[in-house]
Amino acid sequence: MENFRDSYHHSIIDEVWITLPSFIEWLKNKRDKTKHYYSINLTILFHSTCIIEGFLFQLLTDNCGHPSQNETIEDRLRIDLFKKLESASWLQYVEFFQLISGKKLTELTDNETWKAITVLFQLRNQLTHGKYLELNFKTLESSEPLINGKYAHIYTYYKEVGLIDLKRENFVPGIVSFVTSESADFFYLKTKKLLEDILTGYPDENWLGPVKETYNLAFEVE
After folding, report:
1. What DSSP assignment string belongs to 58-105?
2. pLDDT tens digit string along 158-210?
3. 122 within some domain
4. Eight-state DSSP code of residue 178
5. Is 69 within a domain?
6. Is residue 134 in a domain?
7. Which residues of 149-162 are buried (b: 16+ CB within 10 A; e: fewer)?
8. Alpha-carbon distance 109 to 177, whole Å?
């Protein structure tokens, strides 16, 4: 595959995601000392998805290569794949991972981690556009609110893993949030778990060198 590497003598690469783990730890230390804890938790959620996508982009582009010529069909296919990776969404990364590595992402991690990452990106897709998450409650004659609406499944997941409790006696209208310190820390830990699982189970260790080095720097692994 080295034949398909570019032939440039110099390259400037700014791996944005490498800076985010230390920034998240800094935010967590500041969180209890400020009234802006909601914004901090929102930032942790957003940056967790950025870490995952940045990690996958580096890993997959290292694997597929980026030819500097456009002479053969293989050159053109690799150029096309690289361009698609540059604009990939989360679900497209999942597809490209299988295409390039020959393994499904779900095969490299456990079910609980995968469920958490799926919910994390669903949250990101809604919150990053400034939209609210709406749940409709019916509390009469029931011990727990009846949840309706598009994001009821997120509530169901939060309830399943113990991130939210809307029992009738604890329910206060308007004071329910998916963006809490507990949820931000939970999803960040699952983010790190996913990356660790990929590094452990990736089918071709020969292509892990650059991204593993970046990972070690990002998470300060000795």
Report:
1. HHHHHHH---S---SHHHHHHHHHHHHHHT--HHHHHHHHHHHHSS-G
2. 989 999 766 654 555 555 578 889 999 999 999 999 999 999 999 888 878 88
3. no
4. S
5. yes
6. no
7. eebeebbebbeeee
8. 28
Q: Is residue 128, in this structure, part of any structural domain at all?
A: no
- Over pLDDT 70: what percentage of the chain? 78
Residue with tokens 């400034």: 130
> How far apart are alpha carbons 83 and 194 in whole angstroms?
25
Residue type (1 letter), 73: I
* Number of domains within the chain: 1
User: Residue 198: which of 84, 27, 56 has the closest Cα?
Assistant: 56
Domain span at residue 213? 20-108+179-218
Contact 8, 69 (CB under 8 A): no
pTM of the model: 0.85
CA atoms of 147 and 164, how far apart (whole Å): 13
Supply 210's token pair: 């650059």
Residues facing residue 136 across a β-bridge: 148
